[in-house]
Write a structure and sequence with these properties.
Layout: H1 5-15, E1 24-26, H2 28-34, E2 37-42, H3 52-61, H4 65-70, E3 72-75, H5 79-91, E4 95-99, H6 105-113, E5 117-120, H7 125-139, E6 142-143, H8 150-156, H9 158-166, E7 172-176, H10 181-193, E8 198-204, H11 209-214, H12 239-246, E9 249-253, H13 255-269, H14 279-286, H15 288-291, E10 295-300, H16 307-320, E11 324-332, H17 337-347, E12 351-358, E13 368-376, H18 380-392, E14 396-400
Parallel strand pairs: 2-10, 3-4, 3-6, 4-5, 7-8, 7-10, 8-9
Antiparallel strand pairs: 1-2, 11-13, 11-14, 12-13
Helix pairs in contact: 3-5, 3-8, 5-6, 8-10, 9-10, 10-12, 13-14, 13-16
């Protein structure tokens, strides 16, 4: 089977009532920041908060009644696992999900809550494959691969069909790439509907597997990335030739751009996206000249982000923008000093988030102390105003950066 635009249109009909036709919304705030006209396809609002629900359903509904009775299996650390588990429960199919042993508890719990049998194995998806192969033989299970499957790619392509059917003025599409199923399906559909549209894939600098593969280069990747959903070391054999033939270029983004994208989607558009889901916005941010003045459709492909990680990213973005500042203030250890500091900060309109009064752990004389104050401000100029006021009150003040020690 070779995936065609007709296959994707047929898949769209089969998906009706089984997935959410997600919104395709204008992003005026981000457009103003990034210098292009952006529309966002919100697959983070899909069942299980990811586009994976599309391809999983198309692959599973194609199974024979006998295969459905025996059950399905897949390996996944998150979004695909939940998509397979969700549709398996809806369709009455037993499901086994093999997940790396280090998968966060929340993802394991959500997958089990959907009724799937979860087996923890190995440190990554590659180490899961041996167990998957063995269970297929032992139990007669059918593999629903996360991306290297033409039926899965057909289902994912319906994202592009919906985007282009809703807006025929798009000049550019920006799509995250892990194994390539999403962009392979979208590109197949887009080339039939709009042959001249520009299509860009996005990968992280740490995991450029598809970019290297289509360039026929040795694949070397690894490391901790915010976009773990697209941190794939081996692109799909089915998807690779499609991407090589139909995608104009694959852009790489760094971790700072991913953090900015996740934070800006929240702050500017009130949209929650995981790192992989925000990768397209990271590309618009890091490669602005490519998209300047263009009308761009970007896929927000997932929203499954840990709340603690999201909170950390938002605080880090505020610090990098100068809206959170950490000041170290030298004082004499006598009554009234802390009150004078808080009065100065309040007089300038700063908001104290945290304050630490240190007497014991710094190399200072016994009658002196240091105050570390984390302050919410309007930005760098406001920080300078607060520092100037503190200095005018007789305090010695240093602004600390993120790498400053204690």
């Amino acid at each position: 089977m070779t995936v065609s635009a007709t296959d994707i249109r047929n898949a769209s009909e089969r998906l009706e009532g089984n997935i959410i036709r997600t919104p395709f919304v204008q992003a005026p705030a981000l457009s103003g920041l990034l210098g292009c006209d952006i529309r966002l396809k919100l697959e983070n609002l899909q069942h299980t908060s990811s586009f994976k629900a599309r391809g999983a359903f198309i692959a599973m509904q194609a199974l024979s009644s006998e295969a459905r009775k025996r059950g399905v299996i897949t390996m996944s650390a998150g979004n695909h696992a939940q998509a397979v588990a969700y549709h398996a429960r809806q369709m009455g199919i037993p499901a086994v999900i093999v997940m790396p042993a280090q998968t966060p508890f929340a993802k394991v719990s959500r997958t089990r809550a959907l009724g799937a049998e979860v087996v923890l194995e190995g440190r990554n998806l590659n180490e899961c494959e041996g167990l998957v192969s063995r269970l297929i033989v032992e139990r007669g299970l059918s593999l629903i691969h996360p991306y290297d499957d033409e039926l899965v790619m057909t289902g994912q392509g319906t994202v592009g069909l919906e985007m282009l059917a809703e807006d025929d003025t798009l000049e550019t599409l920006v799509v995250p790439i892990g194994g390539g199923g999403l962009i392979g399906g979208i590109a197949t559909m887009a080339r039939e509907m709009r042959p001249n549209i520009r299509i860009y894939g996005v990968q992280t600098e740490l995991y450029p597997a598809m970019k290297l593969a289509v360039a026929n280069k040795d694949i070397a990747c690894g490391g901790e990335t915010l976009a773990e959903g697209i941190a794939v070391k081996k692109p799909g054999g089915v998807t690779r030739p499609v991407v090589a033939d139909l995608v104009d270029d694959i852009l790489l983004v760094n971790e700072q751009s991913l953090e900015w994208a996740v934070g800006s989607l929240i702050e500017q558009q009130r949209i929650v996206a995981e790192g992989a889901g925000a990768a397209g916005i990271a590309a618009l941010y890091q490669h602005r000249s490519i998209f300047a003045g263009k009308k761009v459709g970007a896929v927000i492909c997932g929203g499954n982000i840990d709340p603690r990680l999201l909170a950390s990213i938002l605080n880090r973005n505020m610090a990098s923008d100068g809206r959170l500042a950490r000041l170290r203030i030298d004082i004499s250890d006598e009554p009234g000093m802390l009150a004078a500091i808080t009065a100065s900060i309040g007089r300038c309109g700063g908001n104290i988030v945290e304050i630490y009064h240190q007497r014991l752990f710094y190399d200072v004389p016994a009658k002196l102390a240091k105050i570390d104050a984390v302050i919410e401000t309007r930005g760098p100029d406001h920080v300078d105003e607060i520092i100037a006021d503190l200095k005018s009150a007789g305090f010695i003040v240093h602004q600390m950066d993120d790498s400053s020690g204690g």
